[in-house]
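Two proteins, back to back. First:
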Amino acid sequence: MNLWVYNLREMQRRPGRMLLTFLGIVVGLAAIVATRLTLSTVDRAYRDLFEGVAGKPALEIVAPGQSGFAADLVSGLEHIRGAQAVLPRIQGAAALVSASGSVAVPVLGVDRTGAADWPVREGQPLAREDDALLDPGLANSLHLRPGQSLEIWAPAGSFHLRLSGILQPSPVSAAAGGQMIVLLACAQRLFNLPQRINSIQVLLAEDADPAAVHTAIARCLPAGLMVQPPGMRGTLARSTLLSAEQGLSALSLVAFLAATFVILNTFLLNFSERRKQIAVLRSLGASQRQVLYLLLREALLLGLAGAGAGCISGVFLAVGLNYLMQKFLGLTLPSMKLSTSPFVLAALLGPGVSAAAACLPAWHASRRPPLRELLPQWAHREEALPCWPWQTGLFLLVLGIVGEIVLVVGGLSDTLRRHLLIPVVALLLVGGVLALPLVFLPCLRLLGALPLRLEGRFAVQQLARYPGRTSLTSGVLFLALVVAIAFGQALRATLRDLQHWYRQTIVADFLVRGAMPDSSFTLAPALPESLAEELRRSGAAAVDYIAFLPAEVETQQVLVLARTFAADRPLPLDLHEGDETSVRRGLLAGEVVLGTGLAQHLGLHRGDRVNLNTTQGPCKLRIAGTAVEYAGGGLALYLEWETARKLLDPPGVHVFLVSKRTGDASLGAALHAFCAQHHLLLQSNADLRSLIEGMLNRVSGALWGLMILAFAVASLGVVNTLTRNVHDQLRAFAVLRALGLRGGQVCRIVVVQALLLAGLSLAPGVLAGAGMAYAIQRASAAWTGSPAPFQIDFRLIFGVCGLAMGMAV
């Protein structure tokens, strides 16, 4: 018997239901594809930011804080077995002045022999000491051509270079939105490193053992130098994105889970509606296996079509997410690479999950006795809801709760905790949906006992008549409610904490810098410290410094925030351990303040000692206190400026914090004139606050967009269920209309069913969402070390409940 034609005909008979289910699959898979493509692009940008400018060597030798060192300190490396070439380099960031504003650009200084490794597409290669090469994308965006003059700000001051050529396009040169190549002598002038370098790139032979070469090099290095993979500094940059990555991944998972339950509900409806047709097929000789394969083929066809459309939609969605992430990071992302893994995953999940969701309904449908299904009294009867779904749900809930407890109080590493968060959330969500009938069905029976109007009684009776489809549809809405409340609460709490942190740490009236850094402060141009005196002559009451220095603490990559701390002004730290007086005294005495995230990661507290790798070698510093810090993903520490100068030798000042005298309204105009004359970036405190809030709002927009997708998928399930309910009630409605029921009353019955589906999901959804929000807050506190009091956001809850009711209707 050829059943393919039957498959297609049955799918065409229900175009509306199949379209809604198809859209659910598309939305769920598109969210997964888009988030994976976006996160892959961001990860590649930060990895290539260092691997790319290094020419992709195997190993690099650097000093903490990007400080310089004499090349002869590491002589003899070329004789190490497996080392093919030893290349002296200078790596840093500069502010490139353009008509549209200054931009931060990575700079690579190479010797004359290494300059040949950078072929030019247009112009001439490096010849003179003031020559520079630019990435083609960067040159085009700034409308630069060979022969033009380039003005840049670097740690040694303002310089004019000649653009001698445009680099050949390559994946390396595309990293981080472009780069500048100069000769080593020029880089030494720019970064104030006479007769010094700040990086040595070691290229390995093809047959070399990287671990053995790493060990051999480490034995040869003097104190204050370390060997590491070239992309190691990108690790800290990528750690700042973990929260956003987890939010995007979790919400894409939720959209897909919602789509899965919609698929299950659709096939339950389809197979229940086609009982008589399946019984006829069995009577005509179709075996149980043929019927099972027949029904599973429909699921596979739908899943394959949804996977194809989901992949295409995911690419378009990824373009939008890439744009939002680019604005948030302040970094030009490389062009999106369509790697195969997201599409392979979607191609497997689409038909796989569709078939899995249809497997149980198809198995039951294929094993029903044909004779019984052909009897009139069985035509519209739905089997009682079995016990195993809610029992499985309770089991999954217990597993999820245990997992959450382990995440909060267990002795797991941060990496393992972050990897376990998404599976734990999935267990809680799936368990909650499966266990929902324990709450939902008793509520329906309670409503049925109340003296309701005619429309309400009919609506309750219809929902109670089909507990399976009703519970699944309500479960999808429950899923969307829980996630929107839990993640929305966590997101809004994070934004409040960030605003409080910003007000505590950035207390200056104006900020002066060369160009805006990226959000991880990895690409931050430094300015000469001597500019502070000129800023004071402009009328500033005080000028403080901040520098962002990469370093290493106990083998952990960290961000050192070196800054000045005036004795006559409030301490600009959001302290968690320690009081202002003792912490200030400790900082001025050479002690350190750890970010709460780093302190939690290392298990250290005030009064302990931390081992910081410095230019003189490992140095044990006493912890004066801990403070809430979001820079570097919380893996940050504070040093007083003079202490940092001794230990890490900062290349310059990344930000000048300028404070005005009380009542002085002229400082802004004076600074504006000074910065315009010298082509520096001036920001008021309000400007920077607006910029930060705009960056955060973009990420918030992406997360809220995925939440709305989850609600959209849930609404598809409601439409499916109501459509089937109306179909089952056609005869009853006709009889009621003949007895005098008006058309408006029929419409109200359907609307009341939709409101009941959503309304009965609200209470368990709100409670579960608030509980999950509390669990997320506790888990976040366990990672960041900065517990904040848990507060329920009632405005958010009312808004989400209103959205759920609106989507249902």
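And the second protein:
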Amino acid sequence: MSGHSIENDLHEGPERQFAITSWAVKNRTTVIVLTVLIFLLGIYSYIVMPKESFPEVVTPEVYVGTPYNSSSVVDIEKLITKPLEKEINTISGVDEITSTSVPNYSAIHIKFNYNVTPTEGLRKVKDAVDKARGESDFPTDLPSEPNIFDMNFSELMPVMNINLSGDYPMEQLHQYAKHLQDRIESLSEINKVEIRGVPERELRVSLDLPQMESLEVSFNDVAQALQTENLTMSGGELLVGTQRRAVRVIGEFKDPAQVRDIVVKSEHLKEIRLGDIAEVAFAYKEPESFAREYGKPVVMLDVIKRAGENLLDASDKIDAILKEDVGRVLPADLTITKTGDQSDQTRTSVNELMNHIVLGVILVIGVLMLFLGLRNAAFVGLAIPMSMFISFTLLNVFGVTLNIMVLFALILALGRLVDDGIVIVENIHRHMSNGEPALKATRLAVGEVTMPIIAATTATVMVFVPLLFWPGIMGEFMKFLPITFMIALGSSLFVALVVNPALASKFMKVEERVPTMRWAWKWSGILATVGTLFAVLGLGSKVNILFGLGTLVIFIAIMVLVYARWIARATIWFQEKWLPRLEARYERFLRYALDRHHPRTFFLGTIGLLLFAFVLLFIFQPKTLFFPENEPQYINAFIEAPIGTDILKTDSIARVVEKQVMDVIDVPQYKDVRQVKMPDGTMKEDTFNFLVSSVITQVGRGTSDPRSSEMELSATPHKARVQVSFVKYADRRGIKTNDVLEKLQKHVKGYPGVLVSVVKNADGPPVGKPINIEISGDDIEGLLAEAEKVKHYIEARNVPGVEALRVDIDRAKPEMPIIIDRAKARRLNVSTYAIADAIRTALFGKQVSTYRIDGDDDDYEVNIRLQDKYRYDPQALMDMRVTFRDMLTGQIRQVPISSVAKEEYGNTFSAIKRKDLKRVVTVSSNVIAGYNNNEVVQ
């Protein structure tokens, strides 16, 4: 048909038409090319879109961590936390300020309203901290600069753990871990990799207290000697003839023997070397963490992804690194396991989405084929992949990652994508059945229903608009659902008004012909060839979508034969026999409903059913949950001993809990036998647990409960975690992991005085525990007393579902304050600082320099402190002499600390927490599995 006749046909008559559709029909070739481009762009966008478990939550929240050498939480609050809070509170746009003061550290968490960007909030907080530090009463002796950063929750938790074990010493495993750390951190998708389960090394100088005192050597003498000897300095350039040579003075230590040989002090022609008063060793620091897998020690790497990067790509690249290095850099018998891999869940979710899309297209075409025929049904079914590909393209342009919320929104929209297309295509089919030409039928059909379908789509979209204004971190987390849903529905409307009319006007047929088998074999062969090509390319390039498309095309090739042989005739029989009967019955029902008084009866009946539904809703109120109860992929047993518990004691408690966990999961019910090929080629039976993929135990750092919404402030020697990871859902043989959770909650009893909380992996951002009661005021003793009353009151009520109430501040942290007699100290000319510095150096230690090893890029601390037999002896500490040179006489003086101070024994607070400049104590608890959070709280 010529362009002139198309123009006349479109503008003939006064009927309503939609301008965009008219343009699409006039430019059908352009629309077909556009459709192909959308398919290609959609596939490309899907491939390159970053994929992760949860959306990247960007919130205007800033963290300020300030170290200070004081074991008193009251002093930390007074000297550090309060001055910083006071200045930060003057910043405009601050919604909430919370802080925690613990020994040697102050942590402040600032939440801004969402009119403030994270970058702007970070700048304002840095300015406020600088201003507070400029005040005269703010301490000037901070051991390091405050750590200030904006909080990105997607970069707080590891996306996987890599565990190394084998018949190797821990030092060798540590070297292997450092190699993998460097390799993995070089990936653009990775933010950082942290090594757990093995302490860092240091050059340790352990001083002999009696020898120091007999030779009149002070801590400062040792520190100054190490600092002035262990250095390399540029001396400038030496001009020799016409050449300039760089001059360097090289004095850095190469091995511990050189350190032992340095002169610490020389008086009266007598040299005192470091080896005379100390043991020098390059050794491990005191452990801050332990890690085990199935009870056996491992070195663990926590892999933390960079925000906005592709989780699946990161996982694939890490797998490639492991495969490449094992047998080349790493020994072949080194056992490497991955646990807690979030990419497995993300990969499964993405694959399920694609399966839903394909299944949706098949079902839609199958149902519509009965009413409209295969060709016309295909026009409608096209709306699903087209809408998805447009959505992928737009989401990728906007920088949105493919995460669980986006996937949920796309699946939610799946059933709504074909609605507009069904109305459009069916109306075009009706007009063409009445004998109208294709172009005129398309114009009339779309013009009749354009406004209704636009109104219907807009109304559906408007339902989700309020979700965009959900405040807080949960709103940032949930906003991707309405955004994705609205994009998907807008895409389906575009397909219905532009793509479907253009294709229908060119390809739609009113009468379906039964295809011949020759035609079917021809097209089936072509499609099978194309599908096989796609599948082979997908397997070769490991691009899953190409393999999926190839499989789909092969399936279509098979269905072409099935359609030609059976389905086509069945469709014609349905349209000619059953459909007229259904239409006749529906017509009779409508006539009856509209006859005489029947409309009033149906109207009142509908109102009655609505009221009855409200009554049922009031009587049988449904349970409400923010996230639905899921079958856990992981179960965590969080262990929290009293603050002050040594990490070795915490480790022994974790072993008890670890055994209790194994008693539940290491049972014959979850075991099976498989054949395993041995290195010599023989087959051997192996018993394995088909339900549990790993049991990981961590003690110390990295073990805090992420559901507490609190950052881990520093080392946590009193905390531990036992994590049970399950295999994929499809491999669990029908066993519900919620049942395993209930068994663990009943069986894991923990340890006297230790809080053990058994919970499943939480969905969504950290929002705190379900039961959270805050009591605020100024008197910390009074707040703790009230918190204990609240705790005992709830416990006495025996509320079902409450796991274990706890008060977040412990008043029983043991301490040994040292009280200085200032009058005596003045008479002996010794300052409070000199006493405090000597005690801290003796007990905690002091970093005085750094130590480097040839071929190793790391810098190791050089620390001085007393030998363990003295540093852990209270009497030896109190009898220790403060050695200094008297400025009046010029003589060396030694003053025993016990002569100017005395020690006391008591308890103090484990921490002081504040919220909006007031002290706060919180009573909190998890809810036992199987109970509804809202019902328990109410």
